[in-house]
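Note to self: the last two entries modelled the partners one at a time, which told us nothing about the interface. This time every component goes in together.
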Amino acid sequence: NAGVMQNPRHLVRRRGQEARLRCSPMKGHSHVYWYRQLPEEGLKFMVYLQKENIIDESGMPKERFSAEFPKEGPSILRIQQVVRGDSAAYFCASSAFVSSGGNTGELFFGEGSRLTVL
Amino acid sequence: DAKTTQPNSMESNEEEPVHLPCNHSTISGTDYIHWYRQLPSQGPEYVIHGLTSNVNNRMASLAIAEDRKSSTLILHRATLRDAAVYYCILRSRGNEKLTFGTGTRLTIIP
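The predicted structure of the combined assembly is written out below.
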């Protein structure tokens, strides 16, 4: 059972270009989360999605950033018109459906996509 | 989410037990205590979680204070591979996301 797959692992973009980061959750997982980690800092929550729905985007910058998790295919984090401050590691995690009676859903993280903006 | 407080860093000798503390004085009755760790250049990985009772798994043990205002992650015999940043996180029932703090950077001395 493959883990959470993220690609590309490393991405270099010039200022003003677009970056697309992909995340394939673990088999059977319908919940996807995106986190950003700036150099030497902790992980910051960005967005939580279920299939075809954005559930919580409270950590997502209002401009230039968008995320989707279509019915078929991986989740995509899209950053338009990148700036140097977007350089970071972007981690995706997935979890299985958690019943309303408890909260034991472990999050499984990918290896991350490291974006460098020149 | 309620806040947790952890020491910024700790050191331990290889093959010795390690006790990583976490304070969460504002924990609510529905908050689960989760621990994750992040090895260098990797994504976080789940370690253990609990609600009220102490918990054991193949990776670690979690000791939860009777008043639940603090907890301790116990690595029974540290190896070099356990060098990582350890995050103590409170996750309330029905809240799917994890909110990471700054964690404790654990250094293992050979």
